[in-house]
Amino acid sequence: MGVAARLGALLVPVLVWLAMGRPWAAWWVNDPADRRLEIDVCLPPERVEDGWRYVDLELDPVWHQRDGRVEIEDEDEYEEARRRGWMSADDAGLARATADRCAEVLHRGTEHWPAHGWEMLRM
To answer: Are strands 70-73 and 36-41 parallel, antiparallel or unpaired?
Structure first.
């Protein structure tokens, strides 16, 4: 995710899909230079008074529409968080398993839910 998004300013249209109990959040990023679906691996999101909250576990599977490439971003940040003890071994295991599973789903392209995000952005 770009610096602008982390600071709260989004420079392109996005749609975010969160669900309680699920260890990832999907971000459809409608960037004309690189339209993509980013999966933000996290501890399961929680509803809070003014919206949602989740703890990012660093790994981000990303599907790039332009060439169909799937990659897992932020491996270096994940390794640093593990090394410094910023996440527990259980959380690190959850992050790795979730990132690998989501990357495989994106790579196979057999799930129908990714298309729904692009449809919502057109509304």
So the answer is: unpaired
State the pLDDT confidence band at 9, using cuts at 50, 70 and 90: confident
Q: Which amino acid is at 18?
A: L
Domain boundaries, the chain: 11-110
With tokens 């979730």, the residue in question is 98
Q: Token pair for residue 87?
A: 């996440």
CATH topology of domain 11-110: FomD barrel-like fold (2.40.380)
Phi, psi of 94, deg, nearest 5: -60, -45
Strand partners, 17: 26
DSSP state of 118: H
Task: Give the CA distances from residue 111 to residues 12, 46, 114, 117, in Å, rounded to whole numbers and listed in that order.
Answer: 25, 25, 7, 12
Can you tell me whether residue 38 is helix, strand or coil? strand
**pLDDT tens digits, 56-67:** 999 999 999 999
What's the predicted TM-score (pTM) here? 0.85
